[in-house]
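Exercise 7b. Backbone tokens:
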């Protein structure tokens, strides 16, 4: 018969000599695991006579309990030793100066992107995106730009080198309108999208930069008209500038991709160095818009006799200037930490129409 006392003494000695958690775990599995030695002895109780079970059963249960407790105590001792070792090697030098708090801020352009997306998202628009590098079809031809249009020239647009004489060169998109083309070619109406992103034009001064930010909107559905466009844009202007009322006018204009086309002006007034949008004695052009040209709809496989739509585009950089009082676009791109700290926003701010856009 197996001597339980001898086994107990042997196991206790092995446990006490153990110096690592891995070795201790190996003992536990070897003795108390499903296939362990003590577990196997417990299974043999069923084969014993009642008298043997009366003596061996309690002894085996006591052995199992004692070994489990011994392993737990050793584990606690090893963990304490590991902690003490770490405390000796890992320490904080309290004589060192404290680390400065992070000063990262959200760029005003990104803040305005979030605000515009929140406003139009509340109207049911979804965000759509496309590549910055486009081809002639998406950037010009599908949008009804005729051959010889000034935008197709290098003094307006950044072109890449053509691969061959037959293939028009790739270009940096001059607007986010190609995203509208891609959406109309990929989806069936009704369509309601907002296309934000970087765009590129060959100009550089106080109010224009070679790379700037734009957002365009597109709605395609049955029975859409200019009244819907005007109402949508008025609601946007009021929400963005956080004013109760706004006075606007729609001036006839020309864009190749819309017919009729209009620029929207808003009334404003000067209050010292600040501009207040909504009312006043002066007009300011704020964005371009119009009804989607039938040729554009046809180019995208949409029947203009059934569906109509409107589109609009606005410069994000200019919106930021108007709302937050920045007089020059160029510092947007100069990585000036003091400028960013002055005009930046909390990165944790989440604009919403109901909760407030700018905090």
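Sequence design result:
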């Amino acid at each position: 018969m197996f001597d339980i006392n001898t086994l107990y003494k042997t196991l206790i000695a092995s446990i006490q000599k153990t110096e690592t958690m891995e070795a201790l775990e190996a003992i536990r599995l070897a003795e108390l695991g499903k296939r362990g030695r003590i577990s196997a002895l417990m299974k043999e109780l069923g084969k014993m006579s009642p008298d043997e079970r009366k003596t061996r059963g309690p002894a085996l249960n006591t052995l199992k309990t004692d070994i489990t407790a011994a392993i737990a105590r050793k584990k606690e001792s090893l963990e304490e030793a590991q902690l003490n070792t770490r405390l000796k090697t890992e320490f904080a030098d309290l004589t060192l100066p404290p680390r400065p708090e992070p000063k990262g801020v959200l760029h005003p352009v990104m803040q305005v992107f979030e605000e515009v997306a929140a406003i139009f998202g509340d109207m049911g628009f979804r965000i759509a995106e496309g590549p910055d590098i486009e081809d002639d079809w998406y950037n010009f031809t599908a949008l009804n730009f005729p051959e010889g249009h000034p935008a197709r020239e290098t003094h307006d647009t950044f072109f890449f080198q053509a691969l061959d004489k037959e293939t028009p060169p790739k270009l940096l998109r001059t607007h986010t309108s190609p995203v509208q083309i891609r959406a109309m070619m990929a989806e069936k109406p009704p369509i309601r999208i907002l296309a934000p992103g970087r765009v590129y034009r060959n100009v550089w001064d106080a109010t224009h930069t070679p790379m700037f930010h734009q957002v365009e909107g597109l709605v395609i559905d049955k029975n859409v008209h200019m009244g819907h466009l005007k109402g949508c844009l008025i609601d946007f202007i009021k929400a963005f500038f956080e004013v109760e009322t706004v006075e606007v006018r729609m001036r006839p204009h020309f864009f190749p991709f819309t017919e009729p086309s209009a620029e929207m002006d808003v009334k404003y007034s000067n209050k010292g160095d600040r501009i207040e949008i909504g009312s006043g004695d002066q007009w300011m052009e704020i964005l371009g818009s119009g009804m989607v040209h039938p040729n554009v709809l046809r180019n995208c496989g949409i029947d203009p006799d059934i569906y109509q739509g409107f589109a609009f585009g606005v410069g994000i950089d200019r919106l930021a200037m108007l709302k937050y009082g920045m007089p020059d676009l160029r510092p947007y791109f100069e990585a000036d930490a003091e400028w960013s700290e002055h005009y930046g926003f909390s990165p944790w701010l989440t604009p919403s129409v109901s909760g407030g856009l700018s905090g």
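Instructor comment: DSSP finds eleven helices and ten strands in the chain. Residues 50-89 form the longest helix (40 residues).
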